[in-house]
């Protein structure tokens, strides 16, 4: 069945009201609301988020909003693909219940909003360094969506690993009563992480793009299987960078962090990955597409 | 009846759950939850907030939390009066339903929290200038209390005029579904605005303190009754300052703003209060007490 679409905040809130409080489903459990925030132009990765949300809730709200405050000057806000009708048709196939597709005016009566939700150190690295202000925009729009929907559960993709970590921190620091679920990356058969921005790739670039995932997988394998000296570790990183660059990418960053995005260096000169779960994160341009990927490495 | 006291977030949330959603009271109206945030050491001003809250909701939660993040270095965080038992006894007389009195650890598992809720220009003036970071602490604790209680209504005193304006902005900018009610200032018989910090005053200082309110009232009267030249306006301000200082106060600020805390100057040199509701705001030290007061002037 096709989801019901709301463009304004008050109608959505009214529609969700019956699911709150002591309302029980047929099994006698309290009903739960899930939120899946998206910028639309949905692909199978998004639909997977909805499927996971369905497992954790009785009603699933998918927000579709290309959020202006998370785009920087010169970024692709204007050209970002907007495909609401196709999105709604796809959401019908996975039984999403409600679509929240607000206008910019509905979300931002004052733009930019004077109030800011900032995420501190965790946001000042990786994508936050190459996209100044990006996570400030994410912070405020996610806080707004949480307050509008007041969900019990919210599902975010692990492809945007740093975003997910920032949102978990936001939920803890602002005491949101929301269970944040990180959904595994959905990949094409050749390994490329699904992303709306993949459509910016030319046919040739699309052929090359899976190198990003392959390089990360192999680096993860090497990190897991070998006791590494600092030198060997540095060489692995250099080799991975070279491989990605040689394929035609312009690397924005390739970094190894603890799974909470802390430093893996036990001091400024010594690295130490023992007893730590780590994550390799990459952002790289291929043509006019900036692609993200990451790979968790569970040590031990 | 004595309110029920909760010290941890999850028990409070559980207690409030029955009031949410489609639950109706005896008149068939949907039940509403009100929040009255306080730092405890309650006086009649606080009790008035609770009475107003009772008029707008079926269940009233009073939070009592001396919030460390809104105190600066050298301020009175350590000495701020903590009187939970007496507070609870007073709340019983006005039928508050629940008291939320969390520990610092419960509110801030990480202190300071990396996530920040900043209020921009409106917070960088008046008290924000003399107490750097104060409203950042207010922003995060209010956001947390809103998320913990998820009230329909929250009541704040108009004595903290700037705080009230900041919270209204926060609710708008973060899309909180909360009706913010500003409660009139409660005054002693001699006109002094009630405040927990009044107890820092010596007996002599307490005699002098009402001058603050009297000076503001008279300034308001002059502003309302006269068509003023810039010169006459400036003189009125100087005279008011002098009167307050001569009484023994050290003035932190005395300013006239629009009721939304914007500038009343139509440009940098010309003042224009026609067709604007304005507010006179003062902060002044008397001994070791920093007293706040304000006076609305409805023009026309």
UniProtKB/TrEMBL annotation, chains A, B:
It holds the Pfam family Pantoate_ligase. Beta-alanine binds at residue 70. It is found in: Cytoplasm. Keywords: ATP-binding, Cytoplasm, Ligase, Nucleotide-binding, Pantothenate biosynthesis. It is an enzyme of class 6 (ligase). GO terms for molecular function: ATP binding; pantoate-beta-alanine ligase activity. It comes from the Bacteria. Pathway: Cofactor biosynthesis; (R)-pantothenate biosynthesis; (R)-pantothenate from (R)-pantoate and beta-alanine: step 1/1. (R)-pantoate binds at residues 70, 163. Coiled coil: none annotated. The keyword ATP-binding applies. ATP binds at residues 39-46, 157-160, 186, 194-197. Its EC number is 6.3.2.1. GO terms for biological process: pantothenate biosynthetic process. GO terms for cellular component: cytosol. Belongs to the pantothenate synthetase family. The reaction proceeds by a bi uni uni bi ping pong mechanism. Catalyzes the condensation of pantoate with beta-alanine in an ATP-dependent reaction via a pantoyl-adenylate intermediate. Homodimer. PANTHER family: CYTIDYLATE KINASE/PANTOATE-BETA-ALANINE LIGASE, PANTOATE--BETA-ALANINE LIGASE. This is Pantothenate synthetase. It comes from Psychrobacter nivimaris. The lineage of its organism: Bacteria, Pseudomonadati, Pseudomonadota, Gammaproteobacteria, Moraxellales. The gene is panC.
